[in-house]
Design goal:
InterPro entries: 4Fe4S_Fe-S-bd, 4Fe4S_Fe_S_CS, Helical_ferredxn
Number of helices: 12
GO molecular function: iron-sulfur cluster binding; metal ion binding
Helix content: 25-40%
Protein name: 4Fe-4S dicluster domain-containing protein
Number of strands: 5
Pfam families: Fer4_8 (PF13183)
Keywords: Iron, Iron-sulfur, Metal-binding
Largest sheet: 5 strands, mixed
Strand order of the largest sheet: 2-1-3-4-5
């Protein structure tokens, strides 16, 4: 399937470049190995013929690159898998790129593989559906099936296992995972929802700018703050876990927030549309009525 789709993608790219509809193409560049794939901007038919690739290792979500690319002259062609279109919509909702400078083409996908294990990627096992929610045109072969409720719910199974742990077990789990973090910032840099012009963690006055964590507090703080920052805006694209060189399951933090938001405010899928507010930016006093709120726990001398 991927070979046929790749040829159709190449043909569409050369067609739109030749017509002057776009002056560059955002896609995937082949590397030394089948699984060695890099997002890339192509500017000629010759480059596309020699270097463009689309296979089961093209898991990279190209949406975030549009923030910088649409600041350049001309229009860019971007190819989007179904799951990528949610990030595309969410970025558009937040006015992070110029939609008039993008020609979006939806492409079919039957699942991506993990380059390390060569097995189907976890996020593809719980894929919400093959429907594109944003595009200017679709490549032949796209299956526009609606969201699969069962698979959408199955993605929370791992979260439920964490919730079933005791607080100390859960703490030890995350300490074990986050202790491997080397603060390379790959998760932040790739995340479509992490698109601040100036990140708080780059502030030289913070004391933690561009540095490896000095203790477990800093290891926890970076990822927990980032998870809070993208809450209700995360589309669950899984890019954070995909690029992590330490294989930390960072997507589980985000899914916990998604699960809680669904339970508190009703099912919500970030990036489903380009209008309206997210649950956490549309709060009214009657939405949630916590039965008890503590400033500190009773054991710590807290009060209601």
């Amino acid at each position: 399937m991927y070979e046929t789709v790749m040829e159709a993608i190449k043909a569409k790219s050369k067609e739109l470049l030749a017509a002057g509809t776009v002056n560059r193409v955002l896609g995937w560049q082949k590397g030394l190995f089948e699984s060695d794939i890099t997002p890339w901007v192509f500017t000629s038919s010759e480059e596309i013929d020699s270097d463009f690739i689309y296979n089961e290792y093209c898991g990279a979500n190209l949406s975030k690159a549009l923030i910088k690319e649409t600041r350049k002259e001309g229009k860019i062609l971007v190819f989007l898998k179904p799951c990528d279109t949610y990030s595309f919509n969410q970025l558009q909702k937040e006015h992070r790129f110029d939609r008039s400078k993008v020609h979006a083409v939806g492409i079919p996908c039957t699942g991506m593989k993990d380059p390390e294990t060569k097995e189907t990627a976890e996020r593809c096992l719980v894929c919400r559906g093959t429907k594109h929610v944003a595009y200017d045109e679709l490549i032949d072969g796209c299956d526009e099936s609606e969201l699969d409720p069962a698979r959408a719910q199955a993605r929370f199974d791992a979260v439920a296992k964490l919730e079933a742990m005791t607080p100390s077990e859960r703490y030890e789990f995350w300490r074990g995972e986050l202790s491997r973090c080397i603060r390379c910032n790959a998760c932040r840099n790739v995340c479509p929802a992490c698109s601040c012009e100036n990140c708080v963690f780059d502030n030289p006055k913070s004391g933690i700018a561009q540095k490896a964590a000095a203790d477990d507090f800093e290891e926890n703080m970076f990822h927990i703050i980032r998870a809070f920052h993208v809450a209700s805006r995360c589309t669950d694209c899984g890019e954070c876990s995909r690029v992590c060189p330490q294989r930390i399951p960072l997507h589980l933090l985000n899914r916990k927030f998604i699960k809680d938001i669904n339970e508190l405010y009703g099912d919500y899928q970030a990036g489903m549309e380009t209008e309206g507010r997210t649950p956490l930016t549309n709060f009214t006093p009657g939405d949630v009525e916590p039965s008890v709120v503590y400033e500190r726990s009773p054991e710590q001398g807290g009060r209601k």
